[in-house]
Structures
1.
Amino acid sequence: LQDKLNTAFRTLKGKDRISDINVAATTKEVRRALVDADVNFKVAKDITDRIKDKAIDRKILISVEPGQMFVKIVQEELTELMGGKAESINIKGDPAVVLIAGLQGSGKTTFSGKLASMLKKQGRSVLLTACDVYRPAAIEQLKVLGEQIGVEVYAEPDNKNAVDIATNAMAYARKMGKKIVIVDTAGRLAVDEVMMQEVADIKAAVKPTEILFVVDSMTGQDAVNTAKTFNERLNFDGVVLTKLDGDARGGAALSIRQVVEKPIKFISTGEKMEALDAFYPDRMASRILGMGDVVSLVERAQQAFDEDEAKRINAKMRQNKFDFDDFLGQLQQIKKMGNVKDLIGMIPGMGSAMKDLDIDNDSFKPIEAIIQSMTKAERETPELIDGSRKKRIANGSGTSIQQVNNLIKQFDEMRRMMKKMNTMQAPAAMKKALR
Ligand code: GDP
Ligand code: MG
């Protein structure tokens, strides 16, 4: 997906403004990329149509590449489509019942353990219930997990009736004062009628406060169809997307949300009990786009950058002509934007170039003094600054030769970074940061 999006955004490179023409070309590429990431074609088309309108409407800030601006629009749209905000589960009830459904191997039992562990850590009394009566190892698997996390497991190894077991577990939970019952069910390799009927019967018997559908994110388009079938039968409340630690493509999250109109509530990112996260649509959008903090950088830049100044500097950066005067100008802009350390960390390349500095707004003072002690020629052509000039600059700015050396070194590194970035698209640069 990343490569596809890079191709898409490359279309915009070098253009100062998003025009109809390049938006059309770019959205087409984005659509293709989304489809490749397992997003349903119709969903991908809807998304890109909307993005197209927004991109054309939006005035593009010059200080950041229009490509990045476009990324931001796509990111916002994806976030919105995935529900905007994180959603919780309903665990009110006496006891509350969380029913876990999904295909075999999707990660139901593992997730049941994780959810139990999470709720236990919140101080709730939880009972896990083993309703997979088809595989002898299934009960054992849940028991092992229960022991590991210190949560009791209700099981009836000799009983083959899952509905009975679930009903008995409820009675047991009431007797023992457990507040939440998590019912782990069986799954088949493909959706089949017997399994569907059984889960539906369990639902009718225990009246869950929350039904979660667990789906393996690696299964791509199939995940969407499975979700649809389960939803028609169970009308579930939320989705758990598992195995996102692999090279799963986030596209399933988008399609499922669009097709069944139910929120994704958790993502599972590993076999360990801790590997469970609430689902944050914005983070998933970033994952799909693979671009890390570029989005927030664009946002803040939008708020504070002086457009003309930014335009001028951007042009110089593109031509690899960034000099000390520009550097000074940037420092002053950055100071206006607030927390310097955060901001610098967000700029690809700058973070590492400036990591040796203990940065706050005051630490700019010697830097500013050094640059101000340079002659115009020295600022424009830093290569001129030899040993005797360094000494003069250090004296003039009340700093040491070493400080002058450091600054020049950092400046050189920054310029090298910029040069690199000019031949590389920002999303690719951020891909590394995202890992
Ligand atoms: P169930 O048949 O739906 O109960 O699935 P299980 O919970 O038994 O999981 C099937 C396999 O997937 C097991 O080997 C799990 O360890 C593994 N698994 C479950 N969730 C994840 C996950 O988020 N990431 C990875 N890498 N493996 C997972
Ligand atoms: Mg299982």
2.
Amino acid sequence: MRSPDDDKRLAAEAAVAEVGEGMLIGLGTGSTAAHAIQAIGRAGMAIDAVATSEASARLARQVGIKVVDFARVDRVDLTIDGVDEIDDGFRAIKGAGGAMLREKIVAAASDRMVVIADGSKKVAAIGGARLPVEVVPFATAYVSAALRSMFCAVHLRDGGKTLTDNGNIVLDCMGAHTDDWDRLAGWLSTVPGVVGHGLFLSEIDAAYISALGIVTRLER
Ligand code: 5RP
């Protein structure tokens, strides 16, 4: 019996075929990205990597990948990461794992970003998934009110107990529907206290989606 995890693994393994010797690879975060990290480790290629989370860095080291400090890196060849939702226009929501800020930074530094997912993540229109917003703890109440007044119902993830790798809290916006995601992303970036969000509107170059064991590669 095939499970969504089999499709995550198949999508990850297909994307890992893009990894070449000598590349600097950006490692995403989450269960699908973990399959990619394991596949890169198994391939035993001479690559260096930067990680988008402490969890991915730990896993990468466990499987024998050399992880370098991203603070010393200004350019990445290829990043492979997961998504929570992606539409036909390569607009995506990420951050269920809370790593969206580092994921966005590493994606911005990457010559190419490919995402990997099981078929349930491919949607006609993004907005069904919660939209995570990373916020400096000092600004929790202020940003919550700003998000509520503008566009969505707000939940403080884990009641504020779980912090991101950057020491910040995550506000999850539910029901964030808009006709203009670019405008919403632009507005989010202007709210003091917001340091990141899970809207990836222009970063993604290609997607490997596996449904019922069949992997489809979509190129922007
Ligand atoms: C973490 C992410 C993940 O890539 C995204 O949530 C997908 O996770 P999974 O592969 O476990 O379904 O953005 O911040």
